[in-house]
Amino acid sequence: MMWEIDEKKGEVSACLSGRVYTREAMALAARLLARRAEVFEEKGASGKVRITLRPRERKPTREALDALAGDFLCEALNQQCRLDTARHNGNVQKLLVTQALYAARRQAEAAGSQLSPERLKELSAEARKLMQEAAQEG
Amino acid sequence: MFPNAYQGRVGFLGGTVAQIKVNEAERELAVTVASKECPAEDVRFAAYLYMDRADPLIEPTTGGLRVRLRYRAPVAAGRLREEGKAFVEELRQQRFQGELLARNGSLHEYVVRQALSGAGQAEPAEEGAEPELSAEEEKELDRLIAEVEELVEKEAKGKPKQAEDPLGIRATWEEAHGEK
Amino acid sequence: MGRSRAPDRTCTAAPLYSRKLGGRHLITNDWGHYAFLSQEELDRLRAGRLGPAESRFPELVDKGFIRERMDFKGLAGDFRTLNRFLWQGPTLHIFVTTLRCNHACLYCQSSAGRVVGHETDMSLETAKAAVDMVFAGPNRNIAIEFQGGEPLLNWPVVRFVVQYARKRNEAEKRSLFLSVVTNLSLMDEGKLEFLLDNEVSICTSLDGPAPLHDRNRVFHGGSSQETAVRWIKEIERRRLSEPPPRRRIFKTSALMTTTRFSLPAWREIVDTYLDAGFGGIFLRPLSPIGYAKKVWGTIGYGAEEYLDFYRRALDYILEINLRGRPFIERMAAVLAWKVLKRRDPNFVDCRSPCGASIGQVAYNFDGDIYTCDEGRMVAQQGDPIFRIGNVLRDSYDEIMASPATKGCCMASVLDSQPACSRCVYKPYCGLCPVYNYEAQGSLMGQLPRNMHCRVLKGVFDILFEKLDDRAAAEVIEGWLDSSRREVVK
Fold it and tell me: Chain B within 8 Å of C302 (Cβ-Cβ)?
């Protein structure tokens, strides 16, 4: 089995190698599953880490423990692959995010639609008139 | 770990085998591959893609990695063997993608930077022109490509600068290309 | 700017993605180009043995697949065209004028409330502030879309927004498009005339034939479907009978939502749209967001079930086209627009980063602003994570700088996703952080186990399969010209 279930204690444990999964990945996975379970780690020999998951629900079934262990392993690998991806694409991601947010934050004035304060005031007054009409009819 | 289980070997890259073991009772598939055949990152990636059907655990072995996949749904008899072969094919695919990424990542970034800095208008092609390059021109082209890659790598190393000035707008020519 | 080499030089693969489809391999790159290769051609390209003497070589060079021949400037230009939205702010502004509704749709993402009472109506003050916020954005092209609940239940605010936005735009001189998404059950002559006079486009829901539509969209005032179809036909009658150029009347559009009950009725659904006179249909999958998440067990389905439905319906639609009647499947048309024209179709659901805040914004009845309508649905269930501000308290800059805006932007860049970063559909695709959050508990999600990803991948598989078939490809290419034309007088 890829993990050990202790039904009596209501826990499931798996060993992950520090040579394959960084601690950061394991920690991120633990954080994401924190609502469902308490997560404990024990350092083992040869860079291994023993992760134990104890569901927050009382008296979890064997199937629930099975599913929880599987979900943790999936999330740990998901996070590790994200970290791997960031090493290659981190710069491109930052460039695209910066560009997208910068473009969205340019104010209307910077885009060239400059209404004078007087014109804005006039428009506001016209809006008030429309609002009054709407309130009366509504 | 795999009593009474199927064991098979599949030709991988360059003739070296990947070992496949199945345990139908546990719905578990294990594929072992040497690190020199497939880097760890690409192995992780292939296992990651199989998360749609199985829970993955990757363990180091002597000189390689073993990917264990526990299938969530029941698997038809004999099917795990085929899944193993398909997974080896996926490893092959991801190794190729990994190589492409390693070789071309800087080019990808360079073109994106060019696009964001507005240098993206293609020049119209001249009618009927398809000039052959001389040996000197080819050397010059190789040098240019290498220079571009070096530039991108240099900028990537200077992280604080990256955060403040991702397009390198504030860098002087010397800072960007090195003193002549 | 092409370069060529002496014939004996090998050429290696540029950055590209690949996937086996049928008997061939599809390759794509971040500049939006694609090609189909045989196994042998792909192997030679990978090994650096697909050189200048090969017949495919010029095509692969032009498309940026050969590393030593990359035209950096040209490819950068291609990237800009495909991702034009990166230089624009939000286009689409959704005004949720009320949560009240006179329908009780099974999947309702609006989590509609009662019909009576005004506590969930947008006030005029809030509406004015929202319009001002719209014009604070930088985009020259603005679309204001009324949604709800049923927006016509708060008619005074709908009318005010139309009038004020038009007046404001006389000064701003932008391209302003107005639309209302309504079930049409409250439409009357006065409202219709106002909407047509002010060139407001009308969009409704049409899930299929009456038994299916009425089962999905429960209306105690009669058949929801018959009411909608009656008004669709009336608006079309006016559109065709009025002498030009009195006013610009848009053809009514319709949205179809796929529930479990829709899956076996693909032919009947398409026929309903044909009979109602539509020129196309958007075969939208349902997402387990907001209220739909609660009832997913009753109305939902898996990715493979949806893809089977989609394939059958698309095949039927292509058959209709080949028999001589033009009829568009809009999801295929939008994606094909990106693939074939390599241009951004302004579809906020399928881009990197996604349109959350930076492409669309949703203004709730109480003035709270959200990254998108789906984000607003999540808040309706008690989780305000996608809230980016309030029209009465925050400035435009503040909402664009909010944590939710930044978080969604970063989480939806496909280069940061492991699955997407090596996916053949990356140049054309997009993900939804709201979906990921609702279905998988985090903005990033876990894409191999993500139904939204599986569905999109499946649709792309089907689309590329069709593009590799000459007859189907001709039909789809024909859609690209007609789908972008406004069907107006």
Answer: no
The ipTM assigned to this model is 0.91
Query: DSSP labels for C122-183?
Result: PPHHHHHHHHHHHHHS--SEEEEEEESS-GGGGHHHHHHHHHHHHHHHHHH--EEEEEEE--
Q: Which two tokens stand for residue C182?
A: 């309504």
The residues, ordered by sequence, that sit 6+ positions from C136 with a Cβ below 8 Å of its Cβ are A107, A108, C395, C396
A4-87 under CATH 3.30.70.60, yes or no: yes
* Lowest mean pLDDT, pick from B139-148, C224-233, C288-297: B139-148
Distance CA C187, CA C332 (A): 32
Q: CA-CA distance, C2 to C17, in Å (whole number)?
A: 23
How close A59 gets to chain B, by Cα (Å)? Answer: 22
Copy the structure tokens of residue C121.
């109506």
Q: Rounded mean pLDDT of chain B?
A: 74
d(CA B103, CA B127): 33
pLDDT value at residue C290:
84
Place of tokens 């439905």: C309
User: DSSP class of residue C356?
Assistant: B
Q: Which helix (H) or strand (E) holds C204?
A: strand C200-205
Question: Residue C54, class by beta-carbon neighbours within 10 Å (0-12 exposed, 13-18 middle, 19+ buried)?
Answer: middle
Q: Is B15 left (phi over 0), alpha (psi -120 to 50) or beta?
A: left
State the nearest Cα–Cα gap between B64 and chain C, in angstroms: 22
pLDDT at C74: 93
For A100, A108, C136, C177, C422, the CA distances from A114, given in Å and listed in that order, are 23, 7, 10, 20, 44
Q: Which of C117-121, C122-126, C203-207 has the lowest mean pLDDT?
A: C117-121
Q: Which residue is it, tokens 């599987």?
A: A70
Inter-helix orientation angle A62-105/A23-32, to 10° = 100
Beta-carbon count within 10 A of A19 CB: 14
The dihedrals phi and psi of C122, each to the nearest 5 degrees, come to: -70, 135
Write out pLDDT tens, residues A87-121. 999 999 999 999 999 999 876 666 555 788 888 89
| pLDDT over 90 (residue C355) | yes
Q: Whole-angstrom Cα distance, residue A11 to residue A5? A: 6
pLDDT at C469: 94
Tokens of C351: 């881009």
Helix (H) or strand (E) holding B48: helix B40-49
Shortest Cα distance, chain B CAs vs residue C430, angstroms: 18
Query: How do the domains of chain A map onto residue ranges?
Result: 4-87, 90-137
Using the Cβ of B94 and the Cβ atoms of chain C, whether some distance falls under 8 Å is answered with yes
Nearest to C446 among A74, A115, A127 (CB): A74
State whether residue B146 sits within 8 Å of chain C by CB: no
Question: How many angstroms separate the CA atoms of C33 and C23, rounded?
Answer: 20
Q: How far apart are CA A54 and CA B23, in angstroms?
A: 27
